[in-house]
Amino acid sequence: MDIATLAFSALYQFGDAFAFLVLSACGLAVIFGMMGVINLAHGEFIMCGAYVTAATVHAGLPLPLGILCGTLASAFVGVLVELLVIRHLYERPLDTIVATWGLSLIATQGTLILVGSTMAGVGTPFGSFQVGAYSYSIYRIVLFAAALGVLGALYALFNWTRFGVLARATIQVPHMAAALGVDTRLIYSLTFACGAGLAGLAGGLYAPTMTLVPTMGATFIMEAFVTVVIGGADVFLGTAPAGGILAIVKSGMTSWQGQLFGQIGLLIAVIIVVRVLPKGISGFVLRERT
Amino acid sequence: MTGFLALFRRLEGPQTLGRGPGFWALFALVLAGALAYPLFSDGYTVGNTVYFFVWVFIALSLSLIWGYGGSLSFGQTAFFGIAGYGYGILTINFGAAYGFTFIALLLAVAMAALVAALLGYFMFFGRISGVFLGIVTLAVTLMLERFMAQTAGPEWRIGAARLNGFNGMSAMPPLTIPWFGGPIPLFADIGLYYVVLGMLVLVYLALRMLMNSAFGNVIVAIRENPERAEMLGYDIRKYQLITFVIGAALAGLSGVLYTVWGQYITPSSMGMTAASLPLIWVAVGGRSDLTATVIGTLVVLSGFQALTIYGSQYALVFMGVLLVLTVLIAPNGLVLGIINWIAKLVTRRKQEAA
């Protein structure tokens, strides 16, 4: 194999890992960064997105519309969860972990009871192409583009829209924002819905690539948490660079020793980074700035 | 001798509920009942009761780390698994002769404590805060599960012990007491019941003493306000690390006893569901008191058992609902909530009488 195909293979694997890490983490990072809430039901929002996407595609919708439905459905469930549970726990961040953990149990087992142990998947679209001796799935490149698109869209949302300005005001000094007439409760609801929707989007995007089972959330949740822990509270200064670094670790270790070692690499990375940068990359960057 | 007495005086204090002759009389009564219980029951039922006791240790470990120390750990099931597998590997390789099983028990628990010390060093000396602690420990647990899950192949063996992936490791010898007329193996029966009951009482009393000592007060001070505890001159990282290691050892003990009880352990004992169950018992029972934790765990566990028998698939959903409702309505747990409610009633009576 010559250098060019080798480089392409490495780049492709990096992009694949990067997309997975960023897509599964950004919803979690938005909720954690903005609200300080750790959402352990994140994986179940992803599962919800994937299931709704698959169901609507089976019902005859084209895949992009199905993914949209999955995103919206997760966002809707997110609003419900925020209203019923999360809203009452803002003063007790540790308890949000426990409560969302309970929600995740309910969602996993509830899905198992309602839908059954597995759901018919959706075929991966677009087929594949050949570089050197290996064939690559085009859809993975679409996923990479989607990850970049999500990061761009989030940047635009938080920097260029009225909601973004109000949301950032609410994170920085909630009481001041409330005093100036911002409906902080509404902002929190919308932010949670946004995070849940992003989780649903990740689920919808990955629905064609994996088997749909009630416990599929667990596949995402570890990568998502590792990315958020390393990245810290900020999506752009944290999640995106953390996704980049971890993608190198993961794709490198995976191609060296297989999938499991990719994940062990992530774990070792998180333990080391946490020892050196307790507040993650964004905490480090922001400390340097002030 | 006086030091010894001082230690005993720590059995009650500000960090544990249940004080005075009334409480200890009740304690003696419950203990006597537990000791007499096998006389009125058959070996099979008694063996099943041991299963409930096994889980109390891991619940106590969570009460210690989370309830008293204020740092939520999802890693308890990881230590549970490490010690469980450790016991299996040791005893399958070296057999059960000359009381080795008890040495294996201690070694396995020490193994869990060692891993916890290593992990805890990185976490606490890196000063990661409560929420991140939960995530890192969860990541460790899930990773361990995934690692063990892929060890089904014959190349994954340590000595004579096959790790066996999701098929689980089995056929390790039970705890065995060396005796003159030949060793006595403790199967899930009356013998094991008394051994585990003894351990449970010892651990419970020892933890009461620990929590009411100066060490326990510092731990609670760290939970209440870490900065203040630090300003008072305590190196909070050391205290947190020690608590974490003790907790891991207790979770490990749970793991060993579970393995001994069923002579079987699988990676699923480290999965998401397994990690969530102790959390539910402790949260629902009342995490910030040892007695409440023990009572809560036994009650919720037996309730869960009954649910699994009668409405198998709904049991987990029900548990999730119970957990969410407890967090929302009675943040201190149901047992503590009920105790506080009764205490309030009693004081009101007294005030009315006065």
TrEMBL record, chain A:
One of its GO terms (biological process) is amino acid transport. Belongs to the binding-protein-dependent transport system permease family. LivHM subfamily. It is a multi-pass membrane protein. PANTHER family: ABC TRANSPORTER PERMEASE PROTEIN, BRANCHED-CHAIN AMINO ACID TRANSPORT SYSTEM PERMEASE PROTEIN LIVH. Keywords: Amino-acid transport, Cell membrane, Membrane, Transmembrane, Transmembrane helix, Transport. One of its GO terms (molecular function) is transmembrane transporter activity. One of its GO terms (cellular component) is plasma membrane. It comes from the Bacteria. This is Putative branched-chain amino acid ABC transporter permease protein. It is found in: Cell membrane. Signal peptide: none annotated.
UniProtKB/TrEMBL annotation, chain B:
The chain crosses the membrane at residues 21-40, 52-70, 77-96, 102-124, 131-149, 184-207, 241-258, 264-283, 290-310, 316-343. Its main location: membrane. It comes from the Bacteria. Keywords: Cell membrane, Membrane, Transmembrane, Transmembrane helix. It is a multi-pass membrane protein. One of its GO terms (cellular component) is plasma membrane. GO terms for molecular function: branched-chain amino acid transmembrane transporter activity. It is found in: Cell membrane. InterPro entries: ABC_transp_permease, LivM-like. This is Putative branched-chain amino acid ABC transporter permease protein. It comes from Bradyrhizobium oligotrophicum S58.
